[in-house]
Amino acid sequence: MEENEDVPKDFIKLKSEKLSVDEVSELVVSPYCGAVSLFIGTTRNNFEGKKVIHLEYEAYTSMAETEIRKICRDVRQKWPSVKHIAVHHRLGVVPITEASVIIAVSSPHRAESLEAVMYCINTLKASVPIWKKWIKRRAAGTVCHCILRTCQF
């Protein structure tokens, strides 16, 4: 692979289908990098002492993609050695143990990619218009819909 073929790229996707860790990690692999760091956010079976049946995500898609692109630009300013960034977020129903978000970052060395992944997920949760709804089962068996606004804009 020639050097000009491996220019830094951002891969952003919001989709309702199941996310693939392999697909996302392969997007950021580069012969110029010795590190690929991943964050995989999965649906757990509990929240605030209640059993969670599944999560549901909604997004203001165009604004969410714009905000994620801003996060990628910020990462490149803070860690100039970062090569590729992938942020895939699932929308709709996400069953227990399945991935809601996968973030992958490649860089020549591990410190930059690890720090960049943490920055990406923390900033995404604070600023991207994606909303999470927990579908919980109460003790009596009734279903409760609890909405959390993921972003704070």
What does this structure look like?
The protein is an alpha+beta fold and 153 residues long. It is built from 3 helices and 9 strands. Strands 3, 4, 6, 8 and 9 form a 5-stranded antiparallel beta sheet that branches. A 4-stranded mixed beta sheet has the order 1-5-7-2, sandwiched between helices. β8 and β9 form a beta hairpin. The longest helix has 18 residues. The mean pLDDT is 90.
Could you give a quick summary of the protein structure above?
The chain has 153 residues and is of the alpha+beta class. The protein contains three helices and nine strands, in the order E-H-E-E-E-H-E-E-E-H-E-E. The strands form two sheets. Strands 3, 4, 6, 8 and 9 form a five-stranded antiparallel beta sheet that branches. It has a four-stranded mixed beta sheet with strand order 1-5-7-2, sandwiched between helices.
Counting DSSP E segments of at least 2 residues, the number of strands comes to 9
List segments where confidence is low: pLDDT < 50 over at least 5 consecutive residues: none
Our estimate of the beta-strand percent is 35-45%
Structural class: alpha+beta
Helix content: 25-40%
Rg calculated over all Cα atoms: 17 Å
Q: For the record, give the distance between the C-alpha atoms at the N and C termini, rounded to a whole number.
A: 42 Å
Quick one: overall form? elongated
Overall average residue pLDDT: 90
Number of helices: 3
